Fold this protein.
Amino acid sequence: MSEGAWTAIDEYVAEQLIGDDAALDAALAASAEAGLPAIAVSPPQGKLLHLLARSIRARSVLEIGTLGGYSTIWLARAVGEQGRVLSLEADARYAGVARANIARAGFAETVEVRVGPALDTLALIAAEGPAPFDLVFIDADKVNTPEYFRWALPRTRPGGLIVADNVIRGGTIGDPQSGDPGGLAARRLHEMLHGEPRVSATTIQTVGLKGYDGFTLMLVE
Ligand SMILES: C[S@@+](CC[C@H](N)C(=O)[O-])C[C@H]1O[C@@H](n2cnc3c(N)ncnc32)[C@H](O)[C@@H]1O
């Protein structure tokens, strides 16, 4: 099966299970209009994040990598009126587009977007002594995914989830000689998870309109 077929099937799934969604469609359109790269999660993936957050009754979500706020809106829809989503973005212009998209979707009070390199922002957040997060979605610069996981693990409640996106990377995770820094980082993440008693994890390979990739799902024990 070709990449074209994966895309067509993602579109079919989205049509049947998601349908027209004015806020999400507007967020994608405004992001494209502003010249943001088309690297948001796909609609079925966004809905998966939403369902994961709802299934653990997440109220406090940390997202690392906002882009135009597409996945952020999916997550904000899951946390309820009292819930909060904190989303970190390095690029101030992207963050501006995201804030507008999030406000248009009705979540200006639910979501805070903080600008800056996430490792710096996370150090500031740690100093604030945050309450444990229910769900952490790692989707920023892939080389730092292991570091984001290291930060998130002690700050996610037992029964909470950490999700890392883009860990398969067209298969480069399987080749230590690939030269892909993101693939090597995904391998480091798996080496950290190997024998790590504080989480139970698995990685799922995916195909779809984002090509061949996958995500790691980590349940905090
Ligand atoms: C894959 S995109 C996020 C997509 C978004 N989660 C979605 O699905 O709608 C990755 C984002 O991480 C941001 N980013 C890259 N390096 C970063 C860093 N060091 N700190 C924070 N954000 C970073 C990029 O600017 C980009 O907007």
Summary: The first helix runs from residue 3 to 17. The longest strand covers residues 156-165. The mean pLDDT is 97.
